[in-house]
Amino acid sequence: MKTAFAVIGANWGDEGKGLAVDARASALIQNGHAVTVVRSNGGAQAGHSVVCPNHGRHVFHHIGAGTLAGAATHLSQFFVAHPMMLADELSRIQSLGAPRPPMTIDPRAPITSPWDMAINQALEIARGDKKHGSTGLGFGETIERMEKGPALVAQDLYTRGLAEKLDTIRRDWLPLRKAQLGLIADDSPLGAVLSGTEDAQAVFLRDCEAFVSAVELFADGDLAGDETIVFEGAQGLQLDMNFGRMPHVTRSRTGLANMIRIAKECGITSIHTSYMTRAYATRHGAGPLPHEADTPNALPWLTMEDRTNAPNPWQGTLRLAPLDLDALNRAINADLQEQTWSDISIDPHIGITCLDQINEAAPLIAGGQTLHFTAKDIPLAIGKHVGLKVAMQSWGDCRNKVIMSEN
């Protein structure tokens, strides 16, 4: 039996997936495993924070959150790669004193172009107060182009025909997509890129050269040789394109679906799955958040400092609420039920982060009632309601504050 591990956000993202991946990778490496973290969905819009005793703090976007623990990174066929962002992240990791991580990418992985990013930002600006909650990095527009226009995949970055493919996107797809959306370059602060000048293409080609020098092609099906795989999910189940509430979703499968497809390709037979949640709920971006607090001061039981989710023009300010256990239960059960057809064995459990931020009895919503629990009692309450063992708890922002119990 070949077992992999998985970290999945059970809410709207920001559940502590970076910490969980770092802790899991570190524990495996300390036990003699070679570890590869596989990004199984999303793209560079993810922000997975890791605080490491030896290397300080880093927010991972492109690179696996097990890097500071010594893990390699693989970008799967379901990860949208962003050459414009990778070089900067590699530089920041090396500035922390960490070695440059080994990185591979499946040849089928979609690639974000500068025009995908510009269209995304211009469209979100045009929506005004009806924003969808985009991060502005072109993820959804990349998927749109891949489905309905000229494809650009990782394999293309390593061939001589890249410039011609970019010409096709710029000359054919860009004006078509602008017309579909009613975007006028002259009316947008992103007009220079939206007008289709060649300057953006020249810069992007240099970004692609840097990407190729840092990342090797490697098929998903060749994974899980001698190394142990840790799947790193992005966003959360409440944002899943098939489960979340439209239009405030990501164009991605945020749970087990992609992981199982990769597992089948590379011969993994079981996945030890951590469904992550904070001890409370958060949402960074537009869309419904049940029981949302009007202000942080409305949550006197919570002492929180979030250095990852800074206010920004695309997502606004991080929003907070008591954790709704019924919503959590529905999301996890929906993800598990969808995979009952698979012959991959799933061993699910709960991971809870930010317990150290609960300074007095905190509310949990269950069955329409509000019940209050101290930090030490929250794991038992969540596990009992969801019907899964709580096998990971964090009482701080670093791996040495994480308690894991597998049995």
Automatic annotation (TrEMBL):
InterPro entries: Adenylosuccinate_synth_dom1, Adenylosuccinate_synth_dom2, Adenylosuccinate_synthetase, P-loop_NTPase. Mg(2+) binds at residues 14, 47. This is Adenylosuccinate synthetase. Its cofactor is Mg(2+). The keyword Ligase applies. The lineage of its organism: Bacteria, Pseudomonadati, Pseudomonadota, Alphaproteobacteria, Hyphomicrobiales. It is found in: Cytoplasm. The active site is at residues 14, 48. Binds 1 Mg(2+) ion per subunit. Keywords: Cytoplasm, GTP-binding, Ligase, Magnesium, Metal-binding, Nucleotide-binding, Purine biosynthesis. Homodimer. GTP binds at residues 13-19, 47-49. It is an enzyme of class 6 (ligase). It holds the Pfam family Adenylsucc_synt. GO terms for cellular component: cytoplasm. It catalyses: IMP + L-aspartate + GTP = N(6)-(1,2-dicarboxyethyl)-AMP + GDP + phosphate + 2 H(+). Belongs to the adenylosuccinate synthetase family. GO terms for molecular function: adenylosuccinate synthase activity; GTP binding; magnesium ion binding. Plays an important role in the de novo pathway of purine nucleotide biosynthesis. Catalyzes the first committed step in the biosynthesis of AMP from IMP. GO terms for biological process: 'de novo' AMP biosynthetic process; IMP metabolic process. IMP binds at residues 14-17, 135, 235, 250. Its EC number is 6.3.4.4. Pathway: Purine metabolism; AMP biosynthesis via de novo pathway; AMP from IMP: step 1/2.
